[in-house]
Amino acid sequence: MTAWEELYDAHARERRVDEPAKRVRAPERTPFERDRARVVHAASLRRLAAKTQVLGPGTDDFVRNRLTHSLEVAQVARDLAHPLGCHPDLAETAALAHDLGHPPFGHNGEVALDELGADAGGFEGNAQTLRILARLEAKSFDADGGSVGLNLTRATLDACTKYPWPRADAPSAQPGKFGVYDEDRPVFAWLRSGVTGPRRAVEAQVMDVADDIAYSVHDLEDGVVLGGIDLARLDDPGERAAVFATVRELYLPGVEEAELDAALARVRAVGSWPGAAYDGSRRALAALKNLTSDLIGVFCGEVHRATVERHGPGPLVRHAADLVVPTGTLAEVSVLKGVAAHYVMRSEARLGLMERQRQLVAELYAALRDRGPDALDPLHATDFHDAADDQGRTRVLLDQVASLTDASAVAWHARLCR
């Protein structure tokens, strides 16, 4: 028995459909290496290249899309997981998969689909991720002919579950956030076998923190490069107050302004924080890249130190511990997220675009509902025919729209909504 097999027992490595080892591979891969490969080759991962991160994928050649963001989250997750003793491939797979459920136009499309699917349980990107991994991706089938998606191990599916509860059980601190639709409760019960309550796996916590760290610095970088963020504006007390108001509204309600001011001061004290306005030169871009690298290193280091102080050196796997994010680190990450949200996501031009995107999603959904299975692609048309009731058919329509990229959603709308 290997060291990994001792840490992740047969229950953790189990798949819903048993699979014999493939003899053509030498040396044989671990179950978590196989899981990672399946996600890397999944169609839903490829589609993320054409889905919005903060700005649309066609906006500029430099900015992140959902795929490049996911790759960066995966790297941060490996950096966090390795010193804690988590299996790095397991943490990386969860990070690669964390945004698979996002529909076209990112969180904006998610809001629109949630409203459209209210009578069938709504829509949530994390619940959609589980649905994709365990049902919609074409890879494996059970003895009854039902799809089991990529047939990932229990530990991997658990690590991909950011919100391990159905909508009805969402905690008051996270209303509207959930990780499983009622229709998918059987697989959820399987992957959570042996776990009591809503506690997340360590690897899921690593994925979640890596996501926060990655987009806090990378959205800032994208905003600076595109001219939406001028870091020198943070010298002005009024500008800082406006940013802090956004932080409190979106990320840290109730936090004191002095705490946020101190957090901003700490990140601005990082040696690579730019001392001059961004001018588009190679030197300026290099300085910005060094800043993102340094900040990621600082945040990962703070989380690692705090976690080891509480739990010891590890290894920390599955449900043996909880990742510790120091209050100061959380404030620092949230302030950076708030800068990007205030100056980029909440710009007047973007707010108008977001309204048009939601309208497009609503009109496309209505056209698919009215036209029925003939308007769906073959995979979803089959699911529509097999659905037991109206709620099941609504779920299939949501699946279809969510599967589209930004560009294909626009193309489908042009074709079906004349």
Verbal overview:
The chain is mainly alpha-helical and 418 residues long. It folds into 3 domains: 3-102 and 126-191, Hypothetical protein af1432, CATH 1.10.3210.10; 202-346, no CATH class; 350-416, no CATH class. The protein has helices at residues 3-7, 10-13, 31-40, 43-47, 66-84, 88-97, 106-116, 125-136, 154-159, 185-191, 202-225, 237-250, 257-268, 282-311, 327-345, 348-371, 378-386, 390-403, 406-416. The longest helix has 30 residues, at 282-311.
Number of helices in the DSSP assignment:
19
Q: Calculate the mean pLDDT score and round it.
A: 90
Radius of gyration: 22 Å
**How many β-strands, per DSSP?**
0
At CATH level 3, the topology of the largest domain is Hypothetical protein af1432
CATH H level of the largest domain: which superfamily? Hypothetical protein af1432
In total, the number of domains comes to 3
Shape: globular
Distance between the termini: 62 Å
Percent helix range: 55-70%
- SSE order in H/E notation? HHHHHHHHHHHHHHHHHHH
Low-confidence stretches: none
CATH secondary-structure class of the largest domain: Mainly Alpha
Strand content: under 5%
Described by strand count, sense and barrel closure, the largest sheet is: none
- Tell me which CATH architecture of the largest domain applies here: Orthogonal Bundle
Give the helix/strand class: mainly alpha
